[in-house]
Amino acid sequence: MTNEVEQKIKILLAEDDKFLATALGDKLTREGFEVVKVASGQAVVEAIKESHPRLVLLDIIMPQKTGFEVLSEMRLAPALKNIPVIVLSNLGQEADIEKAKSLGARAYLVKSDVDLKTVLETIKNELAKVG
Amino acid sequence: MAEELQDPVRQEQLNAIFSSMAEGLIAIDNDRKIILMNQAGGILLRTAPQEAIGQDIWVVLLPCLADGRILPDDRLPIERAMTERNIISLDLADDIYLKAKNGRLFPVAMMITPLLTKSGVSGAIILFRDITKEKEVDQAKTEFVSLASHQLKTPLSAINWYSEMMLSEEVGVLNEKQKEYLRQLYESNQRMVGLVNSLLNVSRIDLGTFSIDPEPTKFSEVAESVLAELAPTIKTKNLEVTKSYDAVLPIINADPKLLRIIFQNLLSNAIKYTPASGRIGITLKQEEPNILIQITDSGYGIPASAKNKIFTKLFRAENIRDKEAEGTGLGLYIVRAVVESSGGKIWFDSLEGQGTSFSLTLPLKGMEKRSGAKGLT
Question: What CATH number should be reported for the domain whose range is B2-130?
């Protein structure tokens, strides 16, 4: 058992809505991931530095700092720029998607249009890419 | 003139009324020459009333679009009022502007009445006012709808995800009734997501902030994928689908998302408003310089009284309101806006009780890119 716990893949979940954070957190935990939750944009970058997640699920509209700002900061930090980020937001405009991708996001999902199954598949895909 | 001289008090009164009015007032004769303009009209158009008299109406009063382009001929409301002998009323929804002499463009509400004398139409009276304030309020409303719709998406996503997890029974087994109720919950929520997306689309159309991103697109592929999505309902209602696509259709530079919105709305309407065991048809045909898309059905049809309003926002015809509770009155409004902003045309034929045929054309040369704005979802 101890071995299994150690092998859990860590995902950082930046989501300020507690209902969504619980849904995602529960789902990912049941799927065997270790989940670190952050509820404000300000705390995201610090939390990534501390917890070294394998992947980040990032909301865009968050208190204090937007997901776009988080992406920009991550890109400037050599230790963080290679951590894959999946944006999970209800902003679904072409311009938002392009902006996030140009800032380094690997995938962009619109919350109200995707089911959790798709979120999970996207996570697995991205993790498979980084190996 | 004779009467004027006979009754200078009366004339004085009339002058005072005209010049004290808050609305602009212009009267023209049959030659479209101005015979009277009041002070308010002069202030709005930055033209002295005495200067305007005798001038051609089109020199002084030019109905424009929001970008300052002159209104296309067939829509010149003054001509319509005079030829149709009808009172033409233009308001906020018509989105018409006037250009003052100093170049200032302002949104306007207008009422045009044919000037009727014993011998027939002898001109027209144009009453107009600046509706900048109303426009601002309308803009604020649209922005509010946009913001509110966006906010609504967060709790809707939560309902989606929690019901999805329960339905997949990953936290415990459900009995059949529980599953059925949860499925209802899930589907109702999906409808709500669809509605919010429509509201967002409408607010983007109204704000003029939706983008067009053309790419080489196979129209038949988009049509087929929408049909596949709608297949369960088609099957449940036992509808016969007839497809007629030209054997060779060119690939057109069009925004696939917008095209999807067009097919999705027209096909789902055809399905929704056709009784079980009816027929629906879809045609794709090259008709230089356009591609023609036709969606037909053997459904309830559009009553004659509703034909003028069918593309109006939030409008739903009487005959289907009792039959189909589901429907927002937003679909055709969105479709028309998409088609027209893509350089196309849309029209329909319908007989109540027999069916409806919607036709639209889009230019083969494709849609023009419009960026820096927001896409429709």
Answer: 3.30.450.20
Does position A1 have pLDDT exceeding 70, yes or no? no
Q: Name the nearest CA neighbour of B115 among B126, B104, B131.
A: B126
Beta bridge partners of A109: A88
Look-up of token digits 């304030």:
B133
Helix (H, G, I), strand (E, B), or coil: what is residue B70?
strand
Tens digits of per-residue pLDDT, B188-208?
Answer: 998 899 888 888 888 878 777
For tokens 């969606």, name the residue.
B295
Domain at B135-207: CATH code:
1.10.287
Query: What is residue B163's DSSP assignment?
Result: H
Testing the interface with A: which of B147, B152, B154 to mutate, by most A Cβ within 10 A?
B154
The first and second tokens of residue A91, run together, are 């902003």
A90 near B CB under 8 A: yes
Nearest to A120 by CA among A1, A35, A46, A6: A35
Q: What is the predicted ipTM?
A: 0.90
For residue B154, the chain A residues in CB contact (below 8 A) are: 17, 19-20, 90, 111
Q: Which residue in B222, B225, B377, B376 sits closest to B291, CA to CA?
A: B222
Q: What's the rounded Cα separation, in Å, for the pair A21 and A34?
A: 14
B153 and A90: CB-CB below 8 Å? yes
Topology at the third CATH level for domain A2-130 = Rossmann fold (3.40.50)
B165 closest CB neighbour out of A27, A92, A94: A27
Q: Quick check: B183 contacting A, CB < 8 Å?
A: no
A27: contact with B, CB 8 A cutoff: yes
Rounded distance, CA B163 to CA B180, Å? 11
What digits encode the pLDDT tens for the residues B314-372?
Answer: 888 888 887 776 788 889 999 999 998 888 999 999 999 999 999 999 999 998 887 64
Residue range B215-363, CATH number: 3.30.565.10
Q: How far is B370 from chain A (nearest CA, A)?
A: 12
A105 within 8 A of A55, measured Cβ to Cβ: no
- The token duo for B277 is 């065991």
Domain ranges of chain A: 2-130
Burial class (CB in 10 A: 0-12, 13-18, 19+), B262: buried
CB contact under 8 A, A90 and B213: no
Angstrom distance (rounded) from CA B154 to CA B67: 36
The encoded tokens of residue B179 equal: 């599953």
Domain ranges of chain B: 2-130, 135-207, 215-363
What is the value of pTM for the model shown?
0.67
Across the interface, which of A19, A27, A115 has its CB nearest the CB of B158? Answer: A19
